[in-house]
Amino acid sequence: MPDLFRYAGQALFYAVVMLGIGYFSQRPIYENIPPDKAQILLSFSHGGARAEACRRLSSEEIARLPPNERRPNTCSRRRLPIRVQLLLDEEVIFDRILQPTGLAGDGPAHAYEKFLVPAGRYRLVARLEDRGRADSFAYENELVVELRPRQNLPIDFKADKGGFIFYL
Amino acid sequence: MNALRHALRLAFEIARNALGRIFPDAWNPLLHLGALGFFFYWIVTVSGIYVYAFFDTGAAQAFGSVERMTYEQWFHAGLMRSLHRYASDGLVVVMLLHLLREFAYDRYRGARSFSWLTGVPVLVLVYVAGITGYWLVWDKLAQYVAIVTSEWLDKAGIFGQPIARNFLSPEHLSDRFFTLMVFMHIAVPLIALLILWVHLQRITKPRINPPRGLAVGTLLSLLVLSLVWPATSQGPADLLEVPADIGLDWFYLPLYPLFEALPGPVTWGSSIALLVMFLAIPWLPPMRRAKPARVDLSNCNGCARCFADCPYSAITMVARTDGRPFEREARVNAALCVACGICAGACPTATPFRRATALMPGIDLPDLPLARLREHLHEISARLTERPRIMVFGCGNGVPLAGLENPGVGVVRIACSGHLPPSFIDYVLSRDLAEGVVLTGCSEGDCHNRFGITWTEQRIAGVRDPYLRARVPRHRLRILWAGPLGRSRLEELLVRFAAELAVLPSHAEERVRRRRELAEAGDA
What we know:
Low-confidence stretches of chain B: none
Distance between the termini of chain A: 67 Å
Number of domains of chain B: 2
Strand order of the largest sheet of chain A: 7-2-10-11
Strand order of the largest sheet of chain B: 7-6-8-9
Number of helices of chain A: 2
Structural class of chain B: alpha/beta
CATH class of the largest domain in chain B: Mainly Alpha
Strand content of chain B: 5-15%
Largest interface: A-B, 43 and 48 residues
Low-confidence stretches of chain A: none
Structural class of chain A: alpha+beta
Order of helices and strands of chain A: HEEEHEEEEEEEE
Number of domains of chain A: 2
Oligomer: heterodimer
CATH architecture of the largest domain in chain A: Sandwich
Radius of gyration of chain A: 28 Å
């Protein structure tokens, strides 16, 4: 094969390979979420109340402890499970009891849940119970929101800030 | 497994032959996939160091600094950014092709399993490096990559606090996480380089640089691509928006949509299963392991030719242990030996002319000893009834030899072209076992045992020990490096060669005539 054709062939080969690299490094476009949907993302990390209340040690019990471990109170490490509820326009879309983490059950409970909903106006209610009561929730927060298509609405929980936080 | 391997090998051979039409043999990209991988790695490294000088680490600054590089400094930093991106993609392409090719050509089992085993972590690390790189730009793609990766890691259930919470809202985003990503993006490729060094440890004279022509062509085409189609970002990340229509890099992120959609046990289970399968491939059936080469000290003088020719560093020269008056002796590391026989082909004592003593070379293959090869040669020659007789020496990885035999053509199978001591060619012709010899094997530049073709050509050309003696008439020798698709070329060569040999006088007559001519020239 004459050299000219060989060089042209090489140029064509490089062009095809590079075109392939260029194309597949950013195409085809991947549609991650339908254009008419929005996302609610509920995620928090929160420790429930202690499973048993702290108790005052008697003076005999304190005396039995090694000197460097003597303290007035003793507390159980285990935490109570927490219950979380998320309502969208009165409809419960999430209702779960989350267990504490850790081998001793003394770590915070975690939640990370995504909900895809059609874009539109909603009344969101988030509730959390961390004291072990079955008939009520310690925290309840509400938000009326107009969710745009492909909007992400993160919801966190921070007890010291009054409960659920909606990020808009 | 065999069927898959054969199908893949056929595909590679077709592609190789097609590329052979436009590239010189020495530049064929399919013969330099590993070296091209290194070349892309260095481009990524140099461009990465350059880009880093202009990059601002931090959630709020990263995107802006990359945008400035892309648009305001497009002619240097932007160009380097594009080179960085495209060379990384090229690295994945050649790395995967290299892996597939080694599998297709059955170069991953036995002693070669070490290279396979050390290659798999490199594959994983290159992906980790690429993914952390996409993270740093902090555009919509980075946001998607960060969230899907961290959600996937969280699904393993081994981290205390969900990592994905770092990307819950703009308030949760921390510059420290970016610092960690930068550290990983630099450290992981360095670890990969260290493992690549280990990867090459059991290979003699590894090719880690592509031929200059191929390197220039690759770099130029990458530059053109970077200028014509520069790498760009996909809009700033916004954690209050779901990254929607994303231009994924399908070389690095093809599984991300699946990781996002499928449950944790499925994605983690299949990822671990895939990794274990990759690591276990060298030990999957059908297993085949030829016996390693064996040294016969009574015939080894410690000349070190086998040591110099072994493509796998399986031979070392050690102090003499048998008291004979030589300084060193060859020792075979069975774990590294692939039984290619190149060592036996290099041994000066491996001459078939030996009659006073048995043909016992200093080093030989127990499964295919040269003494048996010589016996076989005589048996085959005795069966050839039609003149001119042609003796074909061929290996099992080159041109298919089954059914080639006929009354004028005999076939002797050797382990590798380099397995055949050149003296065997001399022996066939001078002992009138055939009128012509054909030596065939793998495709040019693509020896199954790396150096079989190179050493054979150098031995025949008289530039590497052991030489093919000058007295051997080269017009009675034909060489064809053609690979598995070269059967028709071999058949055509045999027909033409037979026609040429038919009009020649016998080899004995030629020798007498040559002696006479030399004597007359001497008298004159």
